[in-house]
Design brief:
The chain has helices at residues 54-61, 83-87, 106-116, 121-134, 150-161, 180-195, 207-213, 231-237, 253-260, 290-296, 312-321; strands at residues 5-18, 24-38, 43-47, 69-74, 77-78, 90-94, 168-172, 199-203, 216-221, 224-229, 243-248, 265-273, 276-283, 302-308. Helices cover 33% and strands 31% of the residues. It starts with a strand and ends with a helix. Bound molecules: adenosine-5'-triphosphate. Adenosine-5'-triphosphate binds at residues 14, 16, 28, 30, 48, 50-56. Pfam families: ABC_tran (PF00005). Keywords: Antibiotic resistance, ATP-binding, Nucleotide-binding, Transport. GO terms for molecular function: ATP binding; ATP hydrolysis activity.
Length: 323
């Protein structure tokens, strides 16, 4: 049986030129020899840092961009040979997407797109009602979109992407810019879609989201596949050493730089948590680094220290940080 999405040695490069008088040309290889497949009914995640090639890959799969070389098949159809046939059987939604009619109600927006997508007039009414129910917007369908939150708009976009009942759905950063409550509602919707039998390929920068949602994940960087597997497989495939979280306040950059150079330390990431700074220090496998990390930090500024099990984010940082 063929996979629902099958990507084989896929490449896409872009030629760009800069300068007015002396033009210089540059080629960016956005996707390089990428191969993976997504099985029917699977929720598959594509992860990678900015510029890794995730959107370029999705754009080729949804027939908005032609591959430079290699083959991509969706539902067994070559995306470069028969884009029309692919388009009629897939849906896609980009995070932060515009394109809804603000002055129209949610239901009128769906009616308009249903016409555009050629949904038969007979089935439009029931289809729209079903979709509004699915995306938790029934009861709000008569309200104009201009009064909707970002999360509601995104759910409406997903309903729009499902009007023609596609078998495969591509979601590019579906929860970007959406508050935690809205993001949770969207994640619940994605789970319902999977339960309804859709095959879903999604990109995200949120590791917790990927860990919660995805059956399998491909991690890509610089257009190439770095790792592929279930969240559990990824966590155990990367030989992660000790992970220490240090909550501090007012820690100078020089101290963070010093920790990075300590023996046994693999990566250090610093972020803001409320009024505190959170340092996440990953050690090399087998190295005991808690003592030396704490010695490098003035204990006047340490709020809390804990060691914990590696998360998908730790595995991701180890994979991408080391590439
Ligand atoms: N139309 C284009 N012209 C030139 N270069 C492009 C074009 N589209 C993408 N690129 C380049 O291709 C590379 C991959 O970009 P892409 O948008 O696929 O990454 P991404 O993984 O989706 O990143 P992000 O997480 O930031 O959305 C980048 O270096 C980008 O600058």
């Amino acid at each position: 049986m063929t996979s629902t999405v099958e990507v084989t040695d896929l490449c896409r490069s872009f030629k760009t030129s800069t300068g007015l008088l002396w033009r210089s040309h540059r080629t960016t290889e956005a996707v390089r020899d990428l191969s993976f497949s997504v099985e029917r009914g699977e929720l598959f995640g594509l992860l990678g840092p900015n510029g890794a090639g995730k959107t370029t890959t999705i754009k080729m799969l949804i027939t908005l961009l032609l591959p430079t070389s290699g083959v991509a098949r969706v539902l067994g159809i070559d995306v470069a040979r028969d884009p029309q046939a692919v388009r009629s059987r897939i849906g896609y939604v980009f995070g932060g997407e515009r394109g809804l009619y603000e002055r129209l109600s949610a239901a009128d927006n769906l009616r308009y797109f249903a016409e555009l997508y050629g949904v038969s007039p007979r089935s439009q009414r029931t289809r729209i009602a079903e979709l509004l129910e699915l995306v938790d917007l029934s009861g709000r369908e008569k309200e104009r979109v201009e009064g909707f939150s970002r999360g509601m708009r995104q759910r409406l976009h997903i309903a729009r992407g499902l009007l023609h009942d596609p078998e495969v759905l591509f979601l590019d950063e579906p929860t970007i810019g959406i508050d935690p409550v809205g993001a949770r509602q969207l994640r619940e919707l994605v789970v319902r879609l999977r339960e309804a039998g859709k095959t879903i390929l999604l990109t995200t920068h949120y590791m917790l989201e990927a860990d919660l949602l995805c059956d399998r994940i491909a991690v890509i960087d610089k257009g190439q596949l770095l790792a592929l597997g279930t969240p559990t497989e990824l966590k155990s495939s990367v030989d992660i050493g000790q992970v220490i979280e240090v909550e501090t306040f007012g820690l100078p950059q020089t101290a963070i730089d010093r920790i990075e150079t300590l023996d046994g330390v693999r990566t250090v990431t610093a972020s803001v948590r409320g009024h505190l700074q959170l340092l996440v220090v990953q050690g090399h496998p087998g190295a005991e680094v808690t003592g030396s990390v704490l010695a490098a930090v003035d204990d006047q500024v340490v709020h809390r220290v804990l060691t914990r099990e590696p998360t998908l984010e730790d595995a991701y940082v180890a994979l991408v940080g080391g590439s």
